[in-house]
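Quick start: read one record
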Amino acid sequence: MSLSRRALLSLLPAATVAGQAALAGPANAAPGSARWGGRPASAAAADHARLLANTVATFAGTPESNARPEAAGKLAAIADTARTWLAAWDAAGAGELFAGLPLGDNDAHLNASYQHLYEIALATVAPGDAAPDLRGNAAVRRRVVEGLAWLHERYYGDQSAGYYGNWFHWEIGISTHTSRTLVLLAEELAAQAPELTATYVASMDAYLRNGENGDVDLDSRFHTGANLADITVNRVLQGAVTGDEARIVKAVADLTTVFHPIDPYDLRHGVTDGFYADGSFLQHASVAYTGSYGTSLLGRVTQAFSVLAGTEYLARAELVEVVRGWLVNSFAPVVFEGWMMELVRGRAVSRTTSGYAAVAAVVEAAVDLSAAVEHPERARELRGYVRYLRETSPVAPDPVGFVSPVSVARYADILADDSAPPADLGPAARNVAFNAMDRTVHRRPGYAFALARSSRRISRYEYMSGENLMPWFQGDGAHYLYLSGQDQTRAFGVDYFTAVPPHRLAGVTAPVEERATVPELYGQPFYDNPEAGFTASSEAQNTYVYFPCSTNAHSGGASLDGFGAVGLVLADDVAWRDKAAGLLPEDFVAYRNASGVRSWFLLDEEVVLLAAGVRDPAGRAVTTTVDARIAAPEADLAVTGRLADGRPWPGPGAQQRLSWLRFADRDANTAVGYAFLEPTEARVDLATVTRNRRLVRTANPDTPVTKRVFTLGTELPAGAREPGTLACALVPGADEERLAAYAGGPLTVLANTERLQAVAHRELGLVGVNSFAPGRHRAGGVEVEGPASVLVTRAPDGTVSVAVADPTTERDRIAVTLRGRALRPVELDGGVLVRRVPGGTRLTVTTRRAYGASLTARLAPGDR
């Protein structure tokens, strides 16, 4: 479910909307000085008290939830964490609140110190008998108040000395921990340090430097998406603890903007961060980020529902439906058997936290939403999804990682409830085109294929703060093939990026060269050149270092009845373009890409990979990797195959003309086949490598990783005169007999050039076409004018289905002609016109403002 801006405003209670215009004072006024016009003070006070109680219940649990045996692990973890930091407090040295966290010039240590104060305070208010030494311990609570005062006096209160390092710590991180602590210890603060709460709120306002007058600025690039949700929920808590009605009203109104779907043709405040109509999610303006910032936003919003429950500030039910739509359309497609897919995790792919742990926030949100959704069937579907994630994940979600003990109790109830059968939130066979973030997910029983691309609109990768150090090709057609029943920590995650060379990631076409990481180039985690506009969080740093976009417009494709066609033009990024144009400083380093066109046709039993025009303008060697897989060093692997002349494949080594190859991991009971659809010289490598996880993230533990690494691909030699091509079907689970049958099987490559790539599948009655150049293109009875992506299926009864998409997002209309007998329209999307032409049927598809979305038509034989 998505809502317009007008509809979202209608969901705010009338008093809230009116209150914004009738506030008696500024949004950050002192406690008690601003009151909501027309609302009795007693009603406001009641809502503030409810907010405080809801917040404690959300983070510390309730007597009912905490009495449940299933919550014992969570409560023990809260208590153990508090005891750990109390011991570290006792052992602290000079300039430390906690041992090992020296303060004064390290913002991460200051943020962590506030976090640990919150964690100690949390243990003192959590109901139950899990921590009798901490619950209600007045001495510990007084000590936390003293810690707050000490930190403010020495390391936080002086605005001239603060705000060094990462802006996030000052505007969000510290404020999050502090705001929650102020709520948890409201009584102690009132009695022990009555001025400290107001002092902290004023300081937090002053550190909101990317805001406006100490408040949110919806025009700021820092106050968007997940960041905006963090800031506004913090301000709701601050308003509740100070009795500042104006702050709460304004914060809730700002928060509701995150529910508004992003319309790229009608941006609000210039913001591109958030959820799109096709399920995409962006953060940092151009980074596909559902699996990290998206989960953060999801968690914050569901927490906000809990905190605001029962107050007059928010019409919750309708917005809960919006968030349920996020789960269905944005999160469920990118979670495979409990694993968050790499292609939507940004720089987090380099962390040791696994994709299973990343899904914990999705599970908790589904748990809590199932209790908030008013429609019984939709609530049952959410409960079924929670059970599905538990049932299919090789690593079960750990409720100890949930934010709320209440969620832990609900989770236990759902797992014990057989009335909601385990089920995904989408069909087992589906093709999801997230064209607004240059991602495609293709799912079938037994596997999921996830494809990452980039363009002028979407970043090629995200690097930041020493994370994801070797990201250069992650948006150049990198793919991830997830096989059912496999523990994905053994196939992907941080060890995949550690063990596989960056230019040999699965699916990537890349030049062969040595590249240096940002810290290696500049001696620190960013390029520092203030005179040229490069500081740690400047727009120039974002544009050229942290998450540069590519320079191509063509990236996207069509989706039809669970099938997909995707095209990509490889190009340089904006850093290389602008460095070559003399627009960047002399000491700034940029790298040049290879060039070519790529296509992926996503079918039932196979994914067809095509490449054409592969070359390097600089004359370097270029690799196109069909697949790359990792396994344990002792894994029982088997690689078999046949050469094009019928002889058995002799083993790894030099490039050989392959007919097919099969990689099997017998320990994991998985296999992948590769059927070459055109004569191709390919190279197979199978090696045992040992590399350190710090290669991909400076903060990772100093841990060596040993893996067997399998790669299959083609190599274009340096200085090659003729461009390279590739045509291969990737076949999950295939056996040798099935792979051998592709030599005369149903798949045919109709075209594989720089202008046109197309395939036909006889058994599916399908033709897929990707065109990359102006002019008319013909393949398989389909004519296309200009760059486009087209899928056509023909049913046995003569019914024809067509999907057309504009992968450039820049064309107003696309013309497609189907040669053969005349067809009449049966069902058409808006903007699709059909007419007979000599020798066939012509479709004129208006793609203007469709932003890459597929438009479809159902046609039938005859004149009616």
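The two ends are 36 Å apart (CA to CA).
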